[in-house]
# Entry
Amino acid sequence: MRCTVIGAGVCGLSCAVRLLEAGWAVEIVAEKFSPETTSDRAAAVWYPFLVAPADRAKVWAMASYSVFSELSASEPEAGVIMRTGREYLRENMESPDWHTAITRFRLLGPGELPDEYVHGWEFEVPVVEMPRYMAWLRARCESLGGTLTQRRLESFDDVEGDALVNCSGLGARELAGDDDLHPMRGQVLYLDQTPAVGHFDQQPETLAYVIPRSDCTVLGGTAQINDWNESPSEDDSELILAKCTAMWPGLDTSRITGVAVGLRPARSAVRLELESGERPLIHNYGHGGGGVTLSWGCADEVVALLSAAT
Ligand SMILES: Cc1cc2nc3c(=O)[nH]c(=O)nc-3n(C[C@H](O)[C@H](O)[C@H](O)COP(=O)(O)OP(=O)(O)OC[C@H]3O[C@@H](n4cnc5c(N)ncnc54)[C@H](O)[C@@H]3O)c2cc1C
# Structure
């Protein structure tokens, strides 16, 4: 059976891998490939963030956590590293519902909180270094026999296949006629300096993060709803530096090496469902700020839905 996966971001490539492993012949058709996708801009830490529905997202996130943990131990070239991070909060909050499911989690003491913060926790989660990871994912697809075609689609009828999987990210707004899908703009800076641990304030109003990679540190962020501007903004860079310095006073702002912008595919909830027709079409888009975090769990569900439908 032949399946066409539309989209070569982290969601499309993860689905393609799982479909190939399940015995499907897979063609990936996409307008853009790495390093030109939104997925390439992701910071990217495993952390369920700005995604719904919460109950399904937790299942998808935990499945992905397992895969990323295994990759960090078994496939160094995938660019996945387990790292310690600290989340800081300006008011007391319950620990996230996944805190008992990950390998290391503890509450921070008062002496471990930056000024202005009153609560927080430390955790160990996968950091996915997207430039390396996207290359690894593509190579994995190709090694399993998947083929890649560069093409912009105007309609699902433009492609062949016994089944389709729609992982077109923000492109689904036009392709699937989905007005619920909208951009949530994110700007990041790259820094040539390494913090001892990652630092996070993931409340939407104050969003800030410092994520160490092996070759740089990623600083963020912004979450601007319905903002289609893909050019970096000087004001946003200054805001990001101020927010990150508040969490990490040792940050040396003279060591910034780059800036990037990505448009998260935001939606009231992830759309992962079967649309029945002449051939099965599975939609898998709208992952907002958590597409990397949810990628493997969603891919598993796509394969299960497709198996049940064929
Ligand atoms: C600054 C920033 C930081 C982030 N940090 C994190 C993080 O720390 N953790 C996390 O989990 N997530 C993070 N995200 C979110 C994550 O990047 C997204 O949720 C994820 O990349 C979405 O992946 P996708 O495969 O659905 O979409 P995309 O990566 O956008 O891929 C869509 C694909 O579909 C193709 N396509 C679209 N329309 C068409 C068409 N008409 N015809 C053919 N092809 C088409 C595109 O060319 C592309 O190949 C971050 C995002 C940003 C911007």
Remarks:
- Residues 54-74 form the longest helix (21 residues).
- The chain is about 25% helix and 30% strand.
- The domain at 2-309 is CATH 3.40.50.720 (Rossmann fold).
